[in-house]
Design a protein that fits this description.
The chain is about 20% helix and about 30% strand. By secondary structure, it is an alpha+beta fold. The chain has a single domain (about 30-160), classed as Jelly Rolls (Sandwich).
Length: about 160
């Protein structure tokens, strides 16, 4: 038996095993810092988008997100925010959060064609100035009990200090 005959089934098996694994961040998503948060008594791990590039990339090009994970976009100051579904492959819930940790707006964002021009994407805006935006899998707002007015116990000052303009 040649060495290549032995390697073919092994490579096929490895490919099948990896195809069944949940998607881990790769490419532009790899290397983002994470934080474990408590949202209304439920644990979640969030990737932190702390700078312009990571905030612009967001969950674009990601094929999935586990239900116990999210992405927290943190800005250096409170401001009106608006997000779009740029090259997103799954529906997302979003909660805009102010500097006191209070949810000021929520939206259920739906996928749009990946080739849709930026100017034609639906904007989802905060109803008031916000310091952060939390993106979750569709259904996440309900799963974590997030509604406008919900006050969250977040390390706001630490997160704000880590954010870059």
């Amino acid at each position: 038996m040649a060495a290549t005959d032995f390697l073919k089934p092994l490579l096929l098996l490895l490919t099948l095993v990896l195809a069944g694994c949940p998607s881990a961040p790769s490419g532009p998503h790899a290397g983002l810092p994470t934080e474990k948060l408590d949202l209304n008594g439920r644990a979640i791990t969030v990737e932190l988008a702390l700078d312009r590039d990571s905030r612009l990339q967001g969950l674009s090009d990601r094929v999935s997100l586990d239900d116990d994970r999210g992405m927290l976009f943190v800005f250096a100051r409170e401001q009106p925010l608006a997000f779009v579904m740029r090259r997103c492959h799954f529906d997302i819930d979003i909660a805009f959060i102010d500097a006191t940790g209070t949810v000021v707006a929520t939206h259920q964002m739906v996928t749009e064609p990946p080739d849709r021009p930026e100017a034609q994407l639906t904007p989802y805006a905060s109803d008031a100035p916000a310091l952060m935006a939390l993106e979750l899998n569709a259904g996440g707002l309900e799963r974590y009990g997030l509604t406008t007015g919900t006050r969250l116990n977040l390390p706001v000052l630490d997160l704000k200090r880590r954010a870059k303009r």
